[in-house]
Amino acid sequence: METNHPPAASPSGKKPSVIPLLVVGVVLIVIGSLCKGQAWTTPAMFSGLDLDLAMVITNVGLFVVFAPVLRTYFVDPLMEIMDARNKELESAFTDAENLRGEMTQLRSDYEKRLSDTEASAREQIQSQIKEAQTLRQQLMADAAAKADELRTRATTEIEQERTRVLTDLRLEVVDLTLKATEKLLGEVVDSEKNRKLIQNFIDKVEVAN
Amino acid sequence: MAVDDRVARRYAAAIFETALHHNVVKSVEDDLDAIAACLTEGEQFRTVILSPEISREGKISLCEKLFADSTTALTMQALRLILHKGREHELVAIRDAFTVLRRQQQGVLFATVSCSEDLTDKQRTEITARLRLATGKQVEVQFETDPNLIGGVKATFDNTVLDGSLKGGLAALRDRLYHDLLKQA
């Protein structure tokens, strides 16, 4: 906001001299005082009015005398205060404008950073999701491979155990059969058969070289 | 008391070399067999000879009375030395080692033949002859009876076993079945 007011000094920066005005004022006061009571000061044209020209001249002189004083001791300081106030306001407005600009810039920066952050966050989230999916697939593949390995190992162990038990069973059957055969032979073989066995040994015995 | 085979082999080697030098190996072996038989079968003699309460001189005196007239001078001299050295516990082992040395020197093969029943003399003769023929060596056979064989004959010599017994046949059959079963597994 800008204010327009008359300049307190001339463009040259010098205040107009008050002495001529004082002289003119004093002259007018003197003239008014001298003319007081004379007939021309109350013309007939103003007969209906209570007007005294001498008094008017005197008052004008007084005004001319007091006008510089008023201007020097009242109007000029007032104008200076108003100028200072206007300058302060202008400075405040300028600062406010600057601050608003800075705030606008900060807001723009913040929005940009927020947007960047959101984009980065989305990218990171997508990356994490992708990584998690990859890890999940890897873990599932590992678990499946391990399960297959365990199943294969268990199958092999079961097969080995089955074979071992079957072999043990067959060996046990062989042992029992041979023991039964041995017992049966013990009952069956008599001296005659033993003699034949001995003779068979004598006939066929050989020593391997 | 534990018998030290190394000591027995050293005594046996010394006696055998001396006997061989004087050509009395057979006589000395017979003497040692007789003394060993007295030790294994004669309980009183064994008790006296192995007793630590009897002095060496007493043992030597007793042996001289028992064997001086029936054994060779070399055997008696060896017996005195053995008793003097306190090696009476090794007497049987010395006899065994002497017999091994004699067999080695003569190239005789010692075989053990087991049968479930007592063999007749004819069968023993035939088995001995057959072993001699099979090995190409002189054979000394010790016959034993082993009812566990069920039937047939089993001959053992050196590191060789000729098993013609039913027990051996069943064992061979079992080994073969075991082998086949384990091979299938």
Structure summary:
The complex is a heterodimer of chains A (209) and B (185). With 209 residues, chain A is mainly α.
Protein described:
The complex is a heterodimer of chains A (209) and B (185). Chain A has helices at 19-35, 53-188, 191-204. Chain A is 80% helix and 0% strand. The radius of gyration of chain A is 68 Å and the shape is rod-shaped. Chain A is mostly helical and 209 residues long. The longest helix of chain A is centred in the middle third of the chain and has 136 residues, at 53-188. Residues 1-12 of chain A have low confidence and may be disordered. In chain A, helix 1 packs across helix 2. Chain A contains 3 helices and no strands. Chain B has 185 residues and is α+β, with helices and mostly antiparallel strands. Chain B folds into 2 domains: 5-104, N-terminal domain of the delta subunit of the F1F0-ATP synthase (Peroxidase, domain 1); 108-184, no CATH class. Helices cover 63% and strands 14% of the residues of chain B. Chain B contains 8 helices and 4 strands, in the order H-H-H-H-H-H-E-H-E-E-E-H. Chain B has helices spanning 5-21, 25-41, 43-50, 56-67, 73-84, 91-106, 121-135, 166-184; strands at residues 108-115, 138-145, 153-157, 160-163. A 4-stranded mixed β-sheet of chain B has the order 2-1-3-4. In chain B, helix 1 packs across helix 6 (91-106), helix 2 (25-41) crosses helix 3 (43-50) and helix 4 packs antiparallel against helix 5 (73-84). The model of chain B has no long low-confidence stretch (mean pLDDT 91). Chains A and B meet through helix 2 and helix 3 of A and helix 7 and helix 8 of B.
